[in-house]
Automatic annotation (TrEMBL):
GO terms for MF: peptidoglycan lytic transglycosylase activity
Top-level taxonomic group: Bacteria
Protein name: Lytic transglycosylase
Domain Transglycosylase SLT: 3-303
InterPro entries, per database record: Lysozyme-like_dom_sf (IPR023346), MltB-like (IPR043426), MltB_2 (IPR011970), SLT_2 (IPR031304)
CDD domains in the record: Slt35-like
GO biological process terms, semicolon-separated: peptidoglycan catabolic process
């Protein structure tokens, strides 16, 4: 690890300060082995249960309070990045409950443990070196690097490589402080989504009613995604809004977007459960966290905040 970090330009003094103090954390490995969501093989848990746990009244009211308090700044970020403020709050709310809990694991220890454990060695080796680079460049002190067991940090729960690629200054002090600055955190989330393909002025998704007689085989998706294939496999093929309307789908809660927009249908709990048409911007949410339950919960929280 030392050799790889040196090749990436991390100074020997930084490695001398950090590497000898790292130790194996068995709790991190145990948590890595137990991550039930809709990306897991076999029978996934229900989306209804997931939403009941995550999309509660407290999270919605907390988002609305922050939306009212921060609206001028959020509008400025929407003008700058093209991402609506409620979407930014939706991610912040789902990731850390608006900064209420950002994790207390030592990020460097967690990443070293996961790299050593080997299940996803390449990923976590890269993230560990990125964390070392953050300290080496003076972007954040060693003591600030606390977060989730998987190494996600700060209000947006960025992995170290995401911080280096997408964190930006949002409050004008020339620093990207995702640990202490709400403005920097929200601007960085917006920049992440833009880099993930967010399209200005387009929706994330729409809840729909699906006719009981619709032939699911006729709309089945056939493409295989190179990333998170099990998550994407739960979607139908792409069709335009006009085509979905022609099949008898009805909009729930808000009006239809433009007829030419492409969307896929997901019925996460199967026919008879809640159904959603998801648009290109939904893929940017999946890039943030590749779970249909997560992306839908962010979109629904954003919708609730904006009402």
């Amino acid at each position: 690890m030392r050799g790889q970090a040196l090749e990436r330009g991390v100074r020997p003094a930084t490695l001398d300060m950090i590497l000898p103090g790292l130790s194996f954390n068995e709790r991190v490995v145990a948590l890595d082995r137990n991550q039930p969501d809709d990306s897991s093989p076999g029978q996934p848990p229900s989306m209804a249960g997931y939403l009941a746990r995550r999309l509660d009244d407290a999270r919605i009211s907390g988002g609305r309070d922050r939306y009212a308090r921060m609206q001028p700044r959020l509008m400025a970020f929407e003008s700058r990045f093209g991402v609506p403020g409620p979407i930014l709050l939706g991610i912040w709310g789902m990731e850390t409950n608006y900064g209420g809990y950002t994790g207390n694991f030592d990020v460097l220890q967690s990443l070293a443990t996961l790299a050593y454990d080997g299940r996803r060695r390449s990923l976590f080796t890269n993230e560990l070196i990125a964390a070392l680079e953050i300290v080496d460049r003076g972007l954040a002190p060693r003591s600030a690097l606390t977060g989730s067991w998987a190494g996600a940090m700060g209000n947006p729960q960025f992995l170290p490589s995401s911080y280096l690629k997408t964190a930006v200054d949002g409050d004008g002090d020339s620093r990207a402080d995702i640990w202490n600055s709400e403005a920097d955190s929200l601007a960085s989330i917006a920049n992440y989504l833009v880099k993930a393909g967010w399209k200005r002025g387009e929706p994330w998704g729409l809840e729909v009613g699906v006719p009981a007689t619709m032939d699911r085989r006729a709309i089945a998706g056939t493409a295989v995604s190179p990333t998170c294939p099990r998550v994407h496999a739960r979607h139908s093929r792409w069709m335009t809004v006009a085509e979905w309307k022609a099949l008898g789908l009805t909009a729930v809660g808000k009006g239809w977007p433009a007829d030419h927009l492409r969307a896929t249908l997901i019925e996460a709990d199967g026919p008879g459960g809640r159904a959603f048409l998801t648009f290109d911007n939904y893929r940017a949410l999946l890039d943030y966290n590749c779970s249909n339950y997560y992306a839908i919960s962010v979109g629904l929280l954003a919708d609730a905040i904006s009402r």
